[in-house]
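Q: I'm building a small set of examples for a reading group on sequence design. Run inverse folding on the following structure and report the sequence directly after it, with nothing in between.
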């Protein structure tokens, strides 16, 4: 009697499911029919009225799926409940069709869940900058950090002179950076703001010189519209705004007029005080996703197309060390936003809380965090050690698509 082999199949994408079915010789038409049944999805809906949650649960049950709700929902003895939809891709898709014409806001829920289903299974997206289009998919892009500041947490003062900064930018390009992110104001915890004229003095000569010597996308790391405008005029094509355009009301106009790309990052408070006081979140991923979704919508109102937007959960910005590690672990949840995920774990204190050592001694911890971030959905990593992290990213990409 031949040995019976029974194994669990771990599928994380439609592509993996398709490869499995092709490998066993399934009919091509059958593959298309079976794929939606092979991928299970869990979708979290926050703060729904009980009558809406009850309709959702009944509709999911009728399709063979389910929906988890809080105790007391059926009797409506509580005002609101969170809901977890549970089912195959096909069941959830059918659910959106069934509720699309129903009242009580179910049409809006249908539209949003459809968006989520599309976004979480999209493997490649494009980002349009002021000068080119970047295709972001299976190859992780390396964003090299170039701090033209005397007080950045990791390399403050190392590249404070324009000449040293330009040399470092060229070196990063030679080491394989795909983007160079240039900043003239430290955003480390406790840092003081820098006047716009001083920030301009630090970054504009560097951007102008590097832009004239290498053909790579340059990013300006700033919260100030006047700095972004001058940087874009002198060769930058991406704005990396850690305030997600909440600090300066003019930022959206500057980005839209230049046709630049923008990184919208979550930060609670401002760098000076962001790590002080209460760092508790009711729903860590939920609150950050809701904030970024709101900023994407606000950017759209300001004339910025979705293709110009990237998102960053803001590791270490108004979060505990445990929060930052949790965000990396559950980074895949940010795919619901439909935009490329940027992560900046490099040398940060949450790594030091585990490995110890000063910022420059956190390379191994950074490599582990970068690998986890890439395998969980980040497609752009912001790093100090370009050559090393280029190899780390290449290995993580190979593991992702093996």
């Amino acid at each position: 009697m031949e040995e019976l082999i029974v194994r669990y199949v771990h599928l994380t994408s439609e592509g993996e499911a398709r490869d499995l079915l092709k490998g066993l010789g399934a009919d091509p038409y059958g593959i298309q029919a079976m794929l939606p049944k092979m991928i299970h999805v869990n979708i979290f809906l926050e703060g729904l009225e009980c009558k809406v949650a009850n309709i959702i649960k009944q509709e999911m049950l009728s399709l063979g799926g389910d929906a988890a709700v809080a105790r007391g929902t059926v009797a409506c003895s509580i005002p609101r409940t969170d809901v977890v939809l549970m089912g195959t891709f096909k069941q959830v898709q059918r659910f959106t069709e069934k509720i699309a014409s129903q009242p009580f806001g179910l049409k809006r829920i249908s539209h949003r869940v459809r968006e989520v289903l599309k976004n979480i299974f999209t493997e490649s997206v494009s980002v349009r900058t002021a000068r080119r289009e970047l295709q972001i998919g299976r190859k992780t892009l390396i964003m090299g950090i170039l701090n033209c500041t005397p007080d950045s947490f990791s390399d403050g003062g190392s590249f404070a002179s324009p000449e040293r900064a330009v040399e470092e930018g060229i070196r990063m390009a030679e080491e394989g950076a795909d983007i160079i992110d240039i900043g003239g104001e430290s955003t480390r915890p406790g840092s003081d703001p820098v006047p716009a004229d001083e920030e301009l003095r630090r970054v504009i000569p560097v951007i102008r010189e590097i832009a004239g010597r290498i053909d790579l996308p340059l990013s300006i790391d700033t919260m100030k519209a006047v700095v972004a405008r001058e940087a874009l005029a002198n060769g930058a094509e991406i704005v990396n705004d850690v305030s997600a355009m909440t600090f300066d009301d003019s930022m959206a106009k500057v980005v839209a007029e230049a046709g630049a790309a923008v990184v919208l990052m979550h930060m609670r408070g401002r760098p000076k005080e962001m790590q002080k006081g209460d760092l508790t979140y009711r729903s860590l991923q939920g609150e950050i996703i809701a904030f970024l979704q709101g900023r994407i919508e606000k950017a759209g109102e300001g004339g910025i197309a979705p293709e110009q937007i990237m998102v960053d959960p803001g590791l270490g910005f108004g979060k505990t060390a445990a929060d930052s590690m949790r965000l990396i672990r559950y980074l895949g949840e940010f795919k619901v936003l439909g935009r490329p995920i940027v992560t900046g774990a490099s040398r940060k204190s949450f790594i030091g809380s585990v490995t110890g050592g000063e910022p420059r001694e956190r390379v191994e911890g950074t490599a582990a965090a970068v690998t986890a971030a890439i395998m969980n959905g980040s497609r752009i990593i912001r790093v100090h050690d370009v050559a090393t992290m280029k190899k780390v990213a290449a290995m993580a990409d190979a593991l992702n698509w093996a």
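The longest strand covers residues 40-49.
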